[in-house]
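Q: Sequence in, structure out?
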Amino acid sequence: MSTNYRSVNFKKLLDKLQQESWQLELIISGFAIYGLFAANEPLELKASESVIAGADEFGQFWAILLICCQIFTFNLIIHVLLRGLWIGAIGLRYVSGDINYSTLNYSEKFTSYLKKKVGSFDRYIASLEAYCSIIFAASFLMIFYVIGFFTVTISFVLIIQSFELLTFLPKWAIRTIIITFIIPFFLSSIIVFIDFLGQGFLKKKKWTSTLYFPIYWVFSKLTLSFLYRPLAYNFLDNKLGKRLSFILLPIYIIIVTLASLEYENSNYLSKRNNSSQYQILNEHYNDLSKEEGSFINIASLPSKLIETNYLQLFLLHNKEMEDFIYDRNKKLKPEKDRRGFQSSLTIDFKSGYNDAVGTKDSLNLKKYLETVNEIYTIRIDSNLFKSDFIISTNAKDRMGFETYLNIKNLDEGKHILTITGPTKENKLDSESKTIEKVLVNIPFWYFPENISSSNTQNNRIAADTILTN
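A: Exactly. Output:
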């Protein structure tokens, strides 16, 4: 197949393909919608898992993919519906032909009005065809717009973080550099966004285009616009495309707003409340979180009902927790921080995970766990329990710490497990600082199995005695 876009044969080929493109559109839309629906839930779980684990980089990545999937799904569903209507209209035209207004036998007023507003049936089919093709193209264009928005945001964050690495400079100098960079970057972003909403009106005037061109050049690289620039400008030079670009953004905003609406039927009962002595959350119980597909947040117990004289406790590990451990024990902080993205192809022979007991890394690991037991306090009701955490993973392969508490002396009934530890307090007038506070309250019910079994057996003996008598 010739790729010379100026040749006559290539233009004829394109004319033929655009006439038959609706078949490919339907095939692609059908498979894509099925795949997007299947991918939506795993992406939501990945994004939630990353947020809970404190992996902000992964969280942003999965959030971008999730937003792209949702936009793409919405556009493709609209496209399939309109394309189905278009196919139905063509089938009806084969049976009934064009609209015969004289057969309807309406009054002259309604006939003239319908001829003006409805017009020919062929015009209706042509309009559906145009809308279907433009919406299909716009589906991909919107994805690129979302990716461009996030690439600008990520670039902004990475540049600021690179400034913070200039540790040889005093803090006031680093802050001055960051502020000097932030203000022009933020203003330029607003200018680019205004030009985007105005469909390029800053490019039309000579004096505005001269001032705007350097900003446009920089942001065209940051937004990866070279991938979709021909599609965007071909979309905007069409009257229908311009009209659709004005409609799509408000539609997305309305859909997001409607999707965020929740009906509250109580002033006191809410699913958004934290776990406390008055309310439980399924994410704090292994058996319930496994059933609902949710993720453990901070800590978890095996179940709401504890029938054994010991209590298993799992404390989730995250990046912020390790920072608190380094604050408590400065000697544990390594010279090279290996947290972050790591290739699985890289083998670190200096890693201490397989070292024998008594080596330096094993001693550091022991001190690491001792520090964990120091900074996190466990209470059941008002009674203090000494923890002996060791490294473990839960059923969903989440890294954390596990310990077992002796609860044989607890009374039967409801109890509250409370974990206290360090957390960050963010203030507007100063930098965030570490404070001690209650991290989580997890209620549970303690009914020992041996007592329950003996009671059940006594009840059966009593019932048999009554029946015998």
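The two ends are 98 Å apart (CA to CA).
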